[in-house]
Amino acid sequence: MPVIVAENISKRYIIDHQRKNGSSSLRDIVSDQVDKLFSNKKDLSDFAEKEEFWALQDVNFSIDQGDRIGIVGHNGAGKSTLLKILSRITEPTTGQIKIEGRIASLLEVGTGFHPELTGRENIFLNGAILGMSRNEIKQSFDAIVDFAGVEKFLDTPVKRYSSGMYVRLGFAIAAHLNPEILIVDEVLAVGDTEFQKKCLGKMRDVSESGRTLLFVSHNLTAIQALCNKSFYFEKGRLIDQGETTHIVTNYLSKVSHKTLEKHWDNMDNAPGNDQVRVKRFKLFPEYQDDLNHIDVRTPMNFQFEFWNLVEGANLNLSMHLYTFTGECIFNVGTQSEPFAKGLVRGTCEIPGNFLNDGSYVVSMMIVKDTSTVLYNMEEALIFDIEDYRENVTWYGKWPGYIRPQLNFSIRQTEHVVND
Amino acid sequence: MATVQHTTTIKAGGSEKDYWKDLWLNRQLLWILSKRDISVRYKQTLLGIAWSVLRPLMTTVVMVFVFSYLAKVKGDPEIPYPLTVLSGLTIWTFFANTFTQISSSILINSNLVSKVYFPRLLMPLSSVAVGFVDFLITFGIFLLATLIFRYPVSWQVVFLPCFILLTFITSLGFGLFFAVLNVRFRDVGQLIPFLVQIGFYICPINYSSSLAKGTWFEKYYNLNPLVGIIEGFRWCLLGDKVYFNPNSLYSTTVISFLILILSLTYFRKKENTFVDHI
Predict the structure, then answer these.
(1) ipTM score for this prediction
(2) What stretches in chain A show pLDDT beneath 50?
(3) Which of A51, B103, B181, B257 has fewest C-beta within 10 Å?
(4) SS3 B269
């Protein structure tokens, strides 16, 4: 049975180009109107100052009871606008949504906390703001305090709390809401890994109890773990919906800047110089199962083909691997060898279960006599590695640049026998 | 958890019919927000609640000195002038505080407006609480003053709640309008203190409206609903010696309700898009 049915939802914002801050002053409006009185080009000036922006356009969907919907898309794709409309914070410009059941939205942790009030007072304040009755709050009070771990500071104003305590208390209250439909926006972006783990655990409880969940996040691993269906938004439109795995793969293939191959057929316009010219740089992933994206398990083969134009040149290749943010992870080189004129091919393999998830950039140097750089191609190849986890309960960002599988084990070395 | 099916329809111009029911269901939130405003009012101040006593007291002393001793303004005859001032000040301060608080209530709570839904009317309503506490304190001071001046409160005091309610309605009427305007135009923040300052002089606080009697502007003067309210409030406390024309109550009530209805309609029309302008 559908619990949320949205028909033709659109949301328009008028952007004022003239004014820098959100609120305009009365004087501006008055002077604008006066200007318009004396201006012939009424429509033109109107158009120049104000621009329509459709944050959402013709969005239709239906969500069944118990669905866990992940919402993905770039920044500005309309995800947050949709959540705002669903939580009734703003209204759509057109269309309508029918919602069956009590809805609670968590767009922020600790909404309405007052810094001067104590933790205890804020639990009641925030609970009431989120729509809990006094009795509901009283019933879950101990559980909230326990979950947040702030027993000692209950009567301290929250302005004295550490940011961690503040966030924990905020989430603890929200976690004890009991709605039929829960809307969550990116709350996992804040807090430490320990806290994120708690958040996701709690959200899994919600989803397993048959309630409906809408979850916006950039953390695709979390979305894949929690959501059975997903919506993909782009430029205000719902462009795809369906099984989460399908949507996430689709989304990833569109968002990445990846360059898995560069090639030039004609030596004349190929990059290089009168000694070497590049023919083809290519990455061959050994895709696992029937996936078509690279994840942490995927071994990758690189091929670097170039034309050597100088007979008997002593050449070697040097490859740098960088993270997308520019830190060098490693540099490897081949032996230097003499080559005749013609095509030369270098190959390299990066094994699976070695690099961590993330975006990586390969740069390639062709070096003469082990010392002179003949040609250097920065950003020769760019690729993304997706996350993949098995048998874990934690979905925060895995730390580190590499994620090797090492021989790391534990075993019992002594057994204490009870007498 | 209630098992009652709860259906919500969201659409453009969404003044859904459950609004007033929603407001009623959220009454606990109203209470909690009010409590919040009251309890944080004097946090980290040295004198705390004493401010609520000192302010009206000092104002009365200064007004009595300036108007009575320097400017020789006459209040109603046979009534101690300080009582005239204090009674006017009591109800005026209630109006001015509530009006000011209401008109900034949406902006002050903008963090809530942008993150969570509840009937927005709760914010202006809850912001009345602080003003009401101050009112009770000033009223206490007034009662003490009647003891000092040995001027017993008259029997008309039974009508007092009507005038308090009328003040509340008027301040809500004016306040809601400016609260909406304030979201869009921050000029309102500059305007309000100015309006309150002007109001302090054009309303019969430090003088009796009998001064306007028989002049050409009397009928315009009485259009100000606060004139009737202040005189009526004073009449409740100090009795028939106060200049008060009960007939003026008709126009006062009609004007107050009319303003409230207009403002409320405006507020309801705009409240779902507050967040787009904050």
Answers:
(1) 0.81
(2) 19-22, 41-48
(3) A51
(4) helix
